[in-house]
């Protein structure tokens, strides 16, 4: 059994995120796993005998004919688990080529069909049948179908999250933006908020004109230095600093020059 996974931090680091699929197996999954083991042993034993018999009837020596169940039924399990793994990777954002998915579906369908036909042929041609040949073939074909069903049942159960996906809160969204919302026009802000923002921006501008760097200003106004730079750039673009930064008029320059 795997140990439970530790809680991880959310992308913003503001709060721990609940693990979607913790490692501890629950009762339903243990029952599904035991059912998979029991049904698979019985079903593949049936199928192995039938496919071995078909291989012998095809002229393959008995000692080598036991490879037939592995060749036919093995790809069923492999393809089923591969499709589940691809689905998990797709949920994580990995791009899965359509040709890859198509290959595994074709492999699964072809292997299941061959296994069904092999079991049916073996039952159809057996001696001393007490059931009609068609009924005997249907009973024999139940083995690979049952094996596929329980395999899919377990993998599908393991794919369902045990807890809801962690949702980002409003606080997380604010933390993630790095206070960049302060640089946007506050059209919906209250008068008090607008006054506070204007006073803060004026203080930032005063410190900037006094020669302080953005990194020196940032801790004084409790903002990121990048946000401070954006505020200064916005104020300059809006012309708020026109009086302080305006160059002397050309006529004044001529007077000063004498």
UniProtKB/TrEMBL annotation:
Record keywords, A-Z: Membrane, Transmembrane, Transmembrane helix
Record-linked Pfam families: HTH_23 (PF13384)
Sequence ranges of Low complexity compositional bias: 168-197
Segments passing through the bilayer: 30-51, 63-84, 104-124, 136-158
Region feature (Disordered): 164-197
Lineage of the species this protein comes from: Bacteria, Bacillati, Actinomycetota, Actinomycetes, Mycobacteriales
Annotated protein name in UniProt: Uncharacterized protein
Organism: Nocardia ninae NBRC 108245
